[in-house]
Amino acid sequence: MNELGRLDDLPADYVEALKKQNLVPLWPSLRAVLPPGRPRPLTQPTFWSYEALRPLLLKAGELTPIEKAERRVLVLANPGHGLENMKASSAMYLGMQLLLPGEWAPAHRHTPNAVRMIVEGEGAYTTVDGQKCPMSRGDLILTPTGLWHEHGHDGSVPVVWLDVLDLPLVYYMEASYHIDGPRQAVQPGQGERRYARGGIVPTPVFERTNTPYPMLRYPWSEAKAALQALAADQPQLASVQVTYTNPETGGHAENILGFYAQMLRPGQTLRLPVRSPATVFHQIEGGTTVTIEGSAFALAEADTCCAPGWSEIVLANRSDTEPSFLFLADEAPLHTKLGVYEVRG
Ligand code: 1HN
């Protein structure tokens, strides 16, 4: 591969003449936008300790009333993208949100898709499109693009959850905006019971969901039971992982980001295939050492880390007696839809 010409190889008056016409020569920047062999992600392997962030989040509860915050969140920002850009990776946003007893985070809807993974506390709920979704540790609640959502808290202890949004991508597309709305009327029933049994779904002639998001709450008890059943049924299976899917289509639960739960058997070490999308790991139960391109992060419960696309990742359960359970989010649906998804080994 030959060296390409640089900007300062060119006469200054020529560069100035280009600039005046809003023109730029490609060749000085060609290798930067099209690096050889594989991408050069800005995303850095990054770890966020829950023990370290929790007191800071609770302090935000004292410093900033909910009315002044709307959503009281500390953003888990990747230094590789500049902290102020609020990105965990190029397409993923992560934040830890605090809701105190009696507080109310008012209804809005927006173009970015969101999910919440509940980290601690009981008694809070999100109402999504009129469906009241109670929050318990490990539950996954969807707030897909365009759906009204608001958070309330009838309990007595602080509730914290991890928000995962495709905000960086939607913002990059200049498609990000929100609309405020009135308090939603709660519809009876908890929608997820309609889809509580894998492979058995309501027959459309009797029950027709006219929504692309038929399931909004995925209880941890169900995801954990699915992982345990899979591990027991397939003792040789190396990667005991389940995908949060849309039960009507079998596709990913949301359009842009993918969501998964992973179990590591006691003592298990698992090398993941090298893939193009970035991945986020959040420890639900147990402890995992996540090694990303040689940087080892010891995840304890509620800790989170992020791996850039194209990285070598090894997961190791630190316990020889207990399984480890992780929540994963990645950019795989986006890469697949755009035709740029790659796996190497
Ligand atoms: C949002 O709507 C929520 O509804 C949380 O809880 C975090 C971050 C950026 C944009 C919208 C929420 C958000 C957000």
In words, what does this structure look like?
This protein is α+β, with helices and mostly antiparallel strands. It has one domain (46-62, 71-202, 211-344): Jelly Rolls (Sandwich). Helices cover 17% and strands 32% of the residues. It contains 7 helices and 23 strands. The protein has helices at 12-20, 30-33, 50-63, 66-69, 167-172, 220-233, 332-338, and strands spanning 46-48, 73-75, 93-99, 104-110, 114-120, 124-128, 131-134, 140-143, 149-153, 159-165, 178-180, 217-218, 240-243, 258-264, 269-272, 274-275, 279-285, 288-292, 295-299, 304-307, 313-317, 324-330, 343-344. The strands form 5 sheets. Strands 1-20-17-22-14-13 form a 6-stranded antiparallel sheet, with helices on both faces. Strands 2-3-10-5-8-12 form a 6-stranded antiparallel sheet. Strands 7-6-9-4-11 form a 5-stranded antiparallel sheet, with no helix packed on it. A hairpin with a 2-residue loop joins strand 6 (124-128) and strand 7. The mean pLDDT is 95. Bound molecules: 1-hydroxynaphthalene-2-carboxylic acid (1HN). 1-hydroxynaphthalene-2-carboxylic acid (1HN) binds next to strand 3 and strand 10.
